[in-house]
Each structure stands twice: as structure tokens, then as C-alpha cells.
Design goal:
By secondary structure, the chain is mainly α. The chain is 80% helix and 0% strand. It is built from five helices and no strands. Helix 4 runs antiparallel to helix 5.
Length: 114
């Protein structure tokens, strides 16, 4: 019989107003965090883009030869500056750099006579 009393006491305690309020606050906190995620994500993207913009603007002051030595292309940097914030500008630059490197290897490698 005492087991039954213990079970009913635990059940009553789990449904107490204090426990319910704590659970409600946790639920509200989770809802607030999930609602803030898009805003936080946008702010992080904007901050990252501003850092890229500062770097790109300082690089664009250099001569084309210097940019080439550093592995950049003026047109790629200018194009990356015009991407939407949700796009990663450095990924764009790296993709363009890789594409140029592959094209350069293709033109430099001798073709096999077939």
C-alpha cells in the first residue's frame, strides 16, 4: 500500500503548478531561440560579408600582377562583392580559383596523340 502512496505522491508532484510553470518556461525559451535563429543567422552572414568586403576592397587596390601572385583575380573579387548575403563569398572565390587552376593545367598539359 505504501508503494501506491509513493507513486501517487510522485504523480502529484510532477503535476504541481511549479513544475508546470518550469516546463512552460523551457518551452517558451526554446520557442524564442528558434524564432531568433533566422535573425542570428542573417547577422552572422552580414558580419562575415563585411569582413570579406574589407579584405576585397584592400586587395582591389593592388595591381593585377600582385593579385595574380596572391591567387586572386580582380573580376572574381568584384563578382563576389555583388553576391547576395546568403552566399558565401569566399566559397565563390575558391570555386573560381579552382576552376582557373584546372583550366590552366588542361592548357599546359600535352595532349596524347590519338
Amino acid at each position: 500500500m505504501s508503494e501506491l502512496n509513493d507513486v501517487s505522491k510522485r504523480a502529484a508532484a510532477s503535476h504541481s503548478p511549479t513544475v508546470g510553470a518550469v516546463n512552460m518556461l523551457k518551452s517558451t525559451e526554446h520557442h524564442t531561440n528558434s524564432a531568433m535563429q533566422p535573425i542570428t543567422s542573417w547577422i552572422e552572414g552580414y558580419s562575415k560579408r563585411q569582413q570579406f568586403r574589407r579584405m576585397a576592397q584592400s586587395l582591389l587596390k593592388e595591381k593585377d600582377d600582385t593579385l595574380s601572385d596572391l591567387g586572386y583575380d580582380r573580376h572574381d573579387l568584384e563578382g563576389a562583392l555583388h553576391l547576395p548575403i546568403r552566399n558565401d563569398a569566399m566559397q565563390y572565390i575558391e570555386a573560381r580559383r579552382s576552376k582557373r587552376a584546372m583550366e590552366a593545367r588542361r592548357t599546359k598539359s600535352p595532349r596524347l596523340a590519338g
